[in-house]
Amino acid sequence: MKIGIPRETRPGETRVATTPEIVKKLLGLGFQVQVEAGAGAAAHYLDADYAAAGAKLVGRDQVFLSDLLLKVRRPTKEEIQAMRPNSLYIGPIESCGEDAGIAALRNKNIQVLAVERIPRISRAQSMDVLSSQSNIAGYRAVIEAAAHYGRFFPMMMTSAGSAKPARLIVLGAGVAGLQAIATARRLGAEVSAYDVRPETREQIESLGAKAIQLDIGENGTGEGGYAKELSEAAQAKQQAALAEVLAQAHILIATAQIPCRPAPVLITEAVVRRMRPGSVIVDLAAANGGNCPLTEPDQVVVKEGVILVGYTNFPAKMPSDASAFYANNLFQLLKILVEPSEAGPVLKALDQDEITKAMRVGS
Ligand SMILES: NC(=O)c1ccc[n+]([C@@H]2O[C@H](COP(=O)([O-])OP(=O)(O)OC[C@H]3O[C@@H](n4cnc5c(N)ncnc54)[C@H](O)[C@@H]3O)[C@@H](O)[C@H]2O)c1
After folding, report:
1. Which of 72, 78, 227, 307 is deepest in the core (most CB within 10 A)?
2. Active-site residue numbers?
């Protein structure tokens, strides 16, 4: 069975779906691996290293004719046209419902396993692409905040004067938020965090941050460990209760999201106006409308004297590690997907395992 690794073409995408190290492991499972020339270049994985690991370097047309295609971003219309009928695609589908791309894949009888639908269960942790990439996003968000902030994060006492520690608040304590807390603490900021799910309090405190608690008259815990969308009344209460504490912060790292829904507005324009000039808001929800309505996707803007960072692809800013984690996630998934045989690995029925069953799209 031939695995294909194409070069990603989405603007700003630097990651690649496998690395030379993982190529060796895929060969160990009995796969053949073909990599499009230059596929890893933006992530600093060289063609020569893929070849030395045992991959075959091929052109773009040939890579899309693989039996099993691994990607970092959803295939474009042209890519779906180039894909082999009856093949298998594993990667993101980046859609919450039916759309033209999913229909086009179905028309070619291409089976689809969407990596963002991997269930959040212990057995699937090593395959959990959302977690590995969110972890990177949380780290990188704090690094971006530090780079844009015109002051120190830690307390500094020098002969030229002293600086107070930055007051940093993380909104949303999921995978990205918890990593942001840990990173900001390592840099010496004074860190607090808030999440609508009460069970996050212990996790926030275990990382040495202060948990902000609000009475908004509703429990935000939804299904599968995710948050649910609050009623309008509870949202208004939440914004009002957060306003005072957020206005006093110097850095906000906003990570609050609800799957397949617009991101909740937690940082109102009125709050931004009250923040000290030079404060920084990094809004990881920018692609979904933002936790702050002033954020502009993929832009860094200054509004009301506050620097708003709206990058929508933080993992692409750390492509070497992001690709390595992603590649390993997919390798762990492939291990449960195939059975060895003399003639090479054989694909199991996709509805046989609860993980692959949950990932299936359009069939
Ligand atoms: N394999 C596993 O067991 C596993 C792996 C990873 C994550 N998880 C769990 O999955 C869940 C989702 O994690 P995620 O990081 O993907 O979440 P996410 O990216 O969907 O959301 C980020 C955070 O925003 C919070 N949020 C949403 N609305 C909010 C609001 N109005 N105000 C404040 N905060 C709000 C959510 O509660 C969540 O913690 C978590 O419970 C996490 O612990 C489990």
Report:
1. 72
2. 120, 125, 128, 131, 226
Per the structure block, which two tokens stand in for 171?
A: 């909104």
Q: What is the pLDDT of residues 52-75, one digit of tens each?
A: 999 999 999 999 999 999 999 999
Nearest CA, atom 44, ligand 1: 120
Residues 306, 339 share a domain = no
Q: How far is it, in rounded angstroms, from Cα 351 to Cα 357?
A: 4
- Asked if residue 225 has its Cβ within 6 Å of ligand 1, the reply is yes
Q: Which helix (H) or strand (E) holds 338?
A: strand 338-339
Q: Are residues 144 and 288 in the same domain?
A: yes
- Residue 126 forms part of a structural domain: no
Q: In terms of domains, do 327 and 298 share one?
A: no
Residues 168 and 272 in one domain: yes
Cβ–Cβ under 8 Å, residues 183 and 138:
yes
CB 118 near ligand 1, within 6 Å: no
**Are 7 and 48 in the same domain?**
yes
CATH number of the domain enclosing 251: 3.40.50.720
Task: Count H helices and E strands in the chain, helices first.
Answer: 12, 18
